[in-house]
Amino acid sequence: MADDNNKRARLGFDGKTVELPILSPTLGPDVIDIRRLYADGGVFTYDPGYTSTASCESKITFIDGNKGILLHRGYPIEQLAEKSHYLEVCYLLLYGELPTGRQLEDFEARVTNHTMLHEQMMYFFRGFRRDAHPMAVMTGVVGAMSAFYHDSTDISDPWQREVATVRMIAKMPTIAAMAYKFTIGQPFVYPRNDLDYASNFLRMCFAVPAEDYEVNPILSRAMDRIFTLHADHEQNASTSTVRLASSSGANPFACVAAGIACLWGPAHGGANQACLEMLKEIGSPERIPEFIARAKDRNDPFRLMGFGHRVYKNFDPRARVLKQSADEVLHLLGIDNNPTLQVAKELEAAALNDPYFKEKKLFPNVDFYSGIILEAMGFPTSMFTPIFAVSRTVGWISQWKEMIADPAMKIGRPRQLYTGHAQRDYVDVEDRKD
Ligand code: SDX
Question: What is the pLDDT of residues 75-88, one digit of tens each?
Answer without folding.
Answer: 999 999 999 999 99
